[in-house]
């Protein structure tokens, strides 16, 4: 596989973006370089698609996302070397703010999905690390004789539990940043909801108004709604409070208003939303498990392409809170993700151009591990027949997963690298074995269908 020249890619991206002076902020997620521009009209999209190492360009709500792959941190490191570029912080340029506002007016559903996905995306590494430690604990106790009373178990158990207990803090910080508000106040709100006298408190009231008893550590909707309200209050106060008083009074008044409103109104609404969502999704699953999981298996590449995959995390959390595992979303995405890998590897085998073969091979290996953006953008939607193969493989794998009742016990990126997530906490191996069978079947079918179609279409 050809070695990438990250410095050259960096310079090319800066050039197609209209130069350093047109770039207001640069960040990155797991596979994409995310660029915010002062003037989007200066971006040369045609030339951007020709840059070696750039698989695709995705535009979402005024943000320009260059799909690179899992090596995007290496490219990001080159941008840090440019002193004229901002690699963090809040976008304050009026033109960029106007662009964001216009994007929000365009499509309400797209804005909601983008907000949810953008909120959860930065938290994914925490969720994966914390979630998979649950599988590590099962392995240690079931196969290595580690006692649940030992210090080793206690430490790893703390890693696992802290991830989800303090999730409202992480979500609060991320949501506030997504709204271009104060991230630390968002995290502060999450911490307040988890405080011992607030979280699951019985008989609590504020100024005589009763506060509903809610376990805030097991739901994410209350803190999301609270941060949405907080951002409005914070923005309003920042405009009306004199500059010399803002540092003291804006955060103080913001929290004095936000916390009671969240506890009395938004918290109960968010908690009810989470319960309804979990019950509704699980009712669909129980009505026809094989069909429900098959649909997820078929449509996952489309969700990834349109940036909707991370927006499913609230459903996953709701299912985990209600039924203790996820038999639908992650379970359906597991065969879908590895099917993308199988389709990409088949496309690599067929490819005559060495660069196409290199891209497809790298994307295929990455997809088998659960990261599918390089494969979806760089292979599936450029050649089309690998997309058909991946959807067929993911659908058949999802159908089998639903038939045998396969489920995922902890949050992780669905793929072969996360196979411990399918170990049943009770120590039995049936679910793990079925998970391996389902994913191998999905890869095999996707590879076969893609290879047959590719041979016909590449003649």
TrEMBL record:
TM stretches of this protein: 123-144, 156-176, 183-199, 219-237, 249-270, 282-306, 387-411, 431-453
Domain PTS EIIC type-1: 114-459
Keyword presence, Glycoprotein: no
A single BP term in Gene Ontology: trehalose transport
Gene Ontology molecular function: any one: protein-phosphocysteine-trehalose phosphotransferase system transporter activity
UniProt-listed InterPro entries: Glu_permease_IIB, PTrfase_EIIB_Cys, PTS_EIIC, PTS_EIIC_1, PTS_IIB_1, PTS_Sugar-Specific_Components
Annotated active site: 29
Residues annotated as domain PTS EIIB type-1: 7-89
UniProt subcellular location: Cell membrane
Topology of the protein relative to the lipid bilayer: Multi-pass membrane protein
Keywords linked to the UniProt accession: Cell membrane, Kinase, Membrane, Phosphotransferase system, Sugar transport, Transferase, Transmembrane, Transmembrane helix, Transport
GO cellular component: plasma membrane
Record-given protein name: PTS system beta-glucosides-specific IIC component
Organism of origin: Hungatella effluvii
Taxonomic path: Bacteria, Bacillati, Bacillota, Clostridia, Lachnospirales
């Amino acid at each position: 596989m050809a070695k990438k020249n990250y410095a050259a890619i960096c310079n090319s991206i800066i050039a197609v973006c209209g130069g350093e002076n047109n770039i207001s902020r640069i960040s990155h997620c797991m596979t994409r370089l995310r660029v915010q521009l002062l003037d989007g009209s200066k971006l040369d999209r045609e030339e951007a698609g020709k840059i070696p190492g750039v698989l695709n360009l995705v535009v979402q709500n005024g943000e320009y996302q260059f799909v690179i792959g899992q090596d995007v941190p290496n490219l990001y490191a080159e941008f840090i070397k440019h002193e004229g570029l901002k690699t963090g912080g809040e976008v304050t340029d009026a033109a960029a703010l106007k662009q964001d506002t216009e994007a929000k007016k365009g499509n309400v559903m797209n804005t909601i999905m983008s907000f949810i996905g953008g909120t959860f995306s930065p938290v994914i590494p925490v969720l994966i690390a914390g979630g998979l430690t649950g599988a590590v604990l099962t392995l240690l106790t079931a196969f290595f004789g580690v006692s649940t009373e030992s210090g080793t178990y206690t430490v790893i158990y703390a890693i696992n539990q802290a991830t989800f207990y303090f999730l409202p803090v992480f979500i609060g910080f991320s949501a506030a940043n997504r709204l271009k508000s104060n991230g630390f106040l968002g995290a502060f709100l999450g911490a307040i909801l988890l405080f011992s006298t607030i979280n699951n408190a019985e008989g609590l009231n504020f100024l005589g108004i009763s506060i509903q008893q809610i376990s805030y550590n097991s739901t994410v909707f209350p803190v999301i709604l609270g941060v949405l309200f907080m951002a409005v209050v914070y923005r309003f106060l920042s405009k009306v409070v004199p500059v010399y008083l803002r540092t003291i009074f804006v955060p103080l008044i913001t929290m004095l208003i936000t916390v009671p409103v969240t506890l009395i109104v938004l918290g109960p609404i968010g908690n009810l939303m989470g319960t309804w969502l979990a019950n509704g999704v699980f009712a669909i699953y129980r009505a026809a498990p094989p069909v429900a999981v098959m649909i997820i298996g078929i449509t996952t590449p489309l969700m990834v392409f349109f940036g909707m995959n991370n927006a499913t995390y609230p459903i996953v959390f709701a299912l985990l809170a209600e039924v203790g595992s996820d038999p639908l979303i992650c379970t359906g995405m597991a065969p879908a993700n590895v099917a993308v890998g199988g389709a990409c590897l088949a496309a690599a085998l067929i490819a005559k151009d060495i660069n196409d073969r290199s891209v497809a091979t790298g994307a295929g290996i990455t997809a088998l591990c659960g990261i599918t953006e390089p494969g979806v953008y760089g292979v599936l939607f450029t050649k089309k027949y690998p997309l058909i193969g991946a959807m067929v493989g993911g659908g058949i794998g999802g159908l089998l997963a639903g038939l045998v009742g396969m489920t995922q016990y902890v949050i992780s990126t669905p793929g072969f690298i996360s196979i411990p997530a399918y170990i049943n906490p009770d120590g039995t191996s049936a679910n793990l074995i079925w998970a391996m069978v389902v994913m191998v079947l999905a890869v095999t079918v996707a590879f076969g269908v893609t290879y047959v179609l590719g041979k016909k279409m590449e003649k």
